[in-house]
Amino acid sequence: MKRFLIILFTVCCPLITAYAQQKEILQVAATVKTMQCDFVQTKHLRLLNSAMVSEGRMYYQQSNRLRWEYTVPYTYTFILNGQKVLLKNSRRQDVVDTSQNKLFREIARMMMSSVTGQNLADSKDFHTTFTTKPQEYVATLVPKRKDMRQMFQQIILHISRSQKMVTQVEMIEKKGDRTVIQLKNIKLNATIPPAVFALD
Fold first, then answer.
1. 147 and 110 Cβ atoms separated by less than 8 Å
2. 5-42 per-position pLDDT tens digit
3. Cα 99 to the chain's mean position, in Å?
4. pLDDT, tens digit, 9 for 90 and up, residues 120-144
5. Which of 9-23, 70-84, 102-116, 182-196 has the lowest mean pLDDT?
6. Rounded to whole angstroms, how far apart are CA atoms 100 and 146?
7. Are 174 and 167 in contact (CB under 8 A)?
8. CB-neighbour burial class of residue 114 (10 A; exposed 0-12, middle 13-18, buried 19+)
């Protein structure tokens, strides 16, 4: 399940400046009605010298539709449509009702807020620090909740200064394993066919 928890934030500069940058990013995130992009996911395991790389495509539609599809080197699809989640691979598929399953509900919420950058405002679940670099902002999120701390040390969002959009997500797990997801060819507010989010 961790593969879907992308599914995020050092206030070294004055607090007012960091707050202004954060507010601007959230304002852009609020305008995102749809988003689609390609992604490259690289998994670094402490016990292995080589990294595991997979590729795929992501579709998001405000406020509760998401498709996260791996295409290389295997096929695996996660679709959230309302309160239903479809998990599908080459051999089987399962549909889960998130209203009856707290884990899937949290996974779905984290995935959508991470790709849009909206979890920058999630002070209830994360302690957030914010740094500015020449080409990007870096937001480091440290989980507050016990269940999240059992999985992640921190989640790091890389946000383009020009686009004010998340372009890379890093997830540092409790045992030191690290997953990096790069978002590429981002397209905003284009029409997405309803079939993309179909659960059958």
1. no
2. 433 232 222 233 445 667 777 777 778 889 899 999 99
3. 21
4. 655 677 888 888 888 998 988 888 8
5. 9-23
6. 21
7. no
8. buried
Q: Which amino acid is at 83?
A: Q
* Distance of alpha carbon 164 from alpha carbon 113, whole angstroms: 14
**Token pair belonging to 145:** 């909740």
> Rounded to 10 degrees, what is the CA torsion of 167, 172, 173, 178?
80
pLDDT at 143: 85
Residue found under tokens 């997405």: 192
CB 156 within 8 A of CB 139: yes
What residues contact residue 19 under an 8 Å CB cut-off, 6+ apart? none
* Cα distance between residue 192 and residue 176, in whole Å: 37
Q: How far is CA 83 from the centre of its chain?
A: 18
Rounded Cα–Cα distance for residues 162 and 136 (Å) = 8
In this structure, are residues 9 and 125 in contact, taking their beta carbons and an 8 Å threshold?
A: no
Q: Cα(first)–Cα(last) distance of the chain, in Å?
A: 21
CA-nearest of 107, 155, 109 to 129 is 155
d(CA 58, CA 160): 18
